[in-house]
Amino acid sequence: MSHMHEIKAKSMLADGIVRLDVECPKIARKRKAGQFVIVRAAEGAERIPLTICDADAEAGTIALIIQAVGSSSKRLCDLDEGESISDIAGPLGLPTRLDEVDGLCVCVGGGLGTAPLYPIAQALHEQGVELVSILGARSSELIILRDEFEAISDQLLIATDDGSEGHKGFVSEVLAQVIEERETAACVAIGPVLMMKACAEVTRPSGIPTIVSLNPIMVDGTGMCGGCRVSVGGDTKFACVDGPEFDGHEVDFDGLAQRLRTYQVASKHECRLPREQLPH
Predict the structure, then answer these.
(1) Which of 112-121, 207-216, 223-232 has the lowest mean pLDDT?
(2) Which helix (H) or strand (E) holds 132?
(3) Range list for CATH 3.40.50.80 in the chain
(4) Mean pLDDT, the chain, as a whole number?
(5) pLDDT tens-digit readout, 239-272
(6) What is the pLDDT of residues 56-65, one digit of tens each?
(7) Which of 45, 49, 207, 223 is deepest in the core (most CB within 10 A)?
(8) pLDDT tier for residue 11 given thresholds of 50, 70 and 90
(9) 45 CB-near residues (< 8 Å, 6+ apart)
(10) In which order are the strands placed within the sheet that holds 130-137?
(11) Mean pLDDT for the stretch of residues 160-177
(12) Preceding peptide of 91 cis, ω within 30°
């Protein structure tokens, strides 16, 4: 028996990227930074894992950010205020473990990875941690949640592939600059696999603890399908039940990228991953 979840608010964040604030009181109360939900637009529709980007326990709503790519995500993006989502299961995944951060933390978001990064940055800010946030996208108008990050960051830096704003190039290059200039206690990097790998390589020499989130690679969300299998420190883990967050210095990004390329070919017609999350 499904309980319908009404869409209380809808906004366009960028071309093809939508934010839905959805009625889900229990999850709104229970969720912690880093957790996600599995959503089905309607009975029989594909299951899509989505980060809980924000929640309002009083209003009983959770915020979901969706990029219209395959037919299922497009179906969700096409829903309007007042309409409903059939099923939302969660909160799933292990919450972020952030109690130990003492000093400056650099939060790096690439493309749609900025959505799962936000609740983590928000939690750090509430703990009184000093934050430098670096957001990147292909171009200026594709940067999402800019105002939200501005409000909680001590400094906000932008990187764009086309140089339309901020640094022309990769977020990892901006990260390298920050850690060279300032003593950095920790780093959180979320985005496409190659971007997370590049950030982990930047922080590795100085041993800065680096959290990456592998929620972009989840399909099922319960550990059954094995689609989010990843090697971490030589052990096999499942992003949905053992993560989605891992030590960036321990993740086998090359193996991960290789397997995602296999999926990319298999799922050309029904793309499960936002374009930005696929390895190039």
Answers:
(1) 223-232
(2) strand 130-137
(3) 104-277
(4) 83
(5) 666 666 778 888 888 877 776 666 554 444 443 4
(6) 999 999 999 9
(7) 49
(8) very high
(9) 72, 75, 86
(10) 167-168, 155-160, 130-137, 104-110, 186-190, 210-213, 245-247
(11) 95
(12) yes
Q: Taking residues 83-103, what's their average pLDDT?
A: 84
Closest CA to 212 of 102, 116, 112, 90: 116
Name 111's Cβ contacts closer than 8 Å, sequence gap at least 6. Answer: 136, 137, 138, 142, 191, 192, 195, 274, 276, 277
Which strands form 87-92's sheet, in the order they lie side by side? 48-51, 36-40, 87-92
Tokens of 235: 């052990």
Q: Which CATH architecture has domain 104-277?
A: 3-Layer(aba) Sandwich (3.40)
Q: Which residues pair with 5 in a beta bridge?
A: 85
The whole-model pTM stands at 0.82
Q: Identify the CATH class of 5-92.
A: mainly beta
Range list for CATH 2.40.30.10 in the chain? 5-92
CA-wise closest residue to 223 among 236, 206, 210: 236
**Backbone torsion region of residue 128, taken as left when φ is above 0, otherwise alpha when ψ lies between -120 and 50, otherwise beta:** left
In order of 16, 41, 64, 144, the CA distances from 11 in angstroms are 11, 17, 11, 12
Alpha carbon distance 153, 240 (integer Å): 28
* pLDDT tens-digit readout, 153-167: 999 999 999 999 999
Pick the residue with more confidence: 90 or 156? Answer: 156
> Whose CA is closest to 188, among 275, 246, 138, 103?
246
